[in-house]
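Think of the structure tokens as a kind of shorthand, similar to the way a musician reads notation: each symbol stands for something richer, in this case the local conformation of the backbone. In the example below we present two proteins back to back. Begin with the first one, reading the sequence and then the tokens, and try to describe in your own words what changes along the chain.
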Amino acid sequence: KEYPDLGDEELYRRARVVTSAVIAKIHTIDWTVELLKTDTLLAAMRANWYGLLGKWFKDTFGHIGNDILGGIVGMKKSENHGVPYSLTEEFVSVYRLHPLLPDEFLIRDISSSTDDEESAASKDRLPMSELIGSKGDKALSEIGFTKQMVSMGHQACGALELWNYPNWLRNVVPQDPDGRDRPDLVDLPALEVFRDRERKVARYNDFRRRMLMIPISKWEDLTDDQEAIQVLIEVYGDRIEELDLLVGLMAERKIKGFAISETAFFIFLIMATRRLEADRFFTSHYGEETYTKKGLEWVDTTESLRQVIDRHYPEMTKKWMNSASAFSVWDAPPQSEKHVPLYLRIP
């Protein structure tokens, strides 16, 4: 409607780059902030996008040319530090977040006309194994988009810990492009460990050394869970250097507020910045010529996934989403207002 003179291909290309930017922004200042829920990370991720001077200053005066004060997005040129950009093998290894998935999908009753929580209690439990592949497409179509979103929003994700890998991913039936079941079953957690070993990704301790982090010298350095320590001894004995990266990441004690381990966080921190500063669409090409005026406005005014859902399904957010972020459990109370400015809060 805004640009009737643009052809289908041009509209598609413009829409794609706008949508990609909105996803990247939500990932930076909404999803990551919920994953690493501390004031320090909230300030850091917003500074990545807006700079330390903040959104109001950037919206009012534009990018001032300094990535620290004005943010990475909108810099005059991209920065790849002399190395072509890629998602590294190490990033792939630490971004294995399958324990976030449940074994069952709790489907809520959204037909009630009241806002009573009990009236929307889960009525059905569907195994997640029934929601993948061609049969999953059919099942999800029958459930409907609104019920899917509301149900997912009210079901907390799993913890990234040992013994919390979804059972249905240990015996996955893969399908070919035509939707036919393939004969070889997939044990995904075993496959993930095997892939790291096959690609010679560093084991846990060596991985930390290469990140200039302190390696562990005994199992107690990794976790306080005595049951986990006993199992680690059964599997690895006293050969701490052989501890697989994925196992170590799941066993590692977490920083307060972090859903991921500190080891994984180091890689997250590097890649979160690099994927923005090395991309010309967030730097030298971040402007109306690439995005169009309306497209750039769309990116600049979108602050969260909740805002995107509200734009398309206002009744859903009004009735069902109590939390400030769509990445929180939706019936969680909204955060209390903090009167101390973000940069002045004590971590």
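Once you have a description of the first chain, move to the second and do the same.
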Amino acid sequence: MVSLLRELIYIYIWLIFIAIILTWVPQATGTLATVRRVLTSVTDPVLRPIRSVVPPLRVGPGAIDLSPIIAVVVLEVISRLL
């Protein structure tokens, strides 16, 4: 049971990484846009609460969303505590 939970956590971490990479693709269309929407709907329930507490880090004219980094660290800690 514990190994299954760990595997699910690692799969979820990979989904977060893929979602991050897809945000760098400008104006995704077709299948890529669908994949992006699905990943967003799967990862947002974890990332949204973090975003509400931790604001984006301002870097020049842009900002860096720290929520995926925080989520991955927390998920990794949970996985190791199992």
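Compare your description with these statements about the second chain. Residues 4 and 10 are 10 Å apart (CA to CA).
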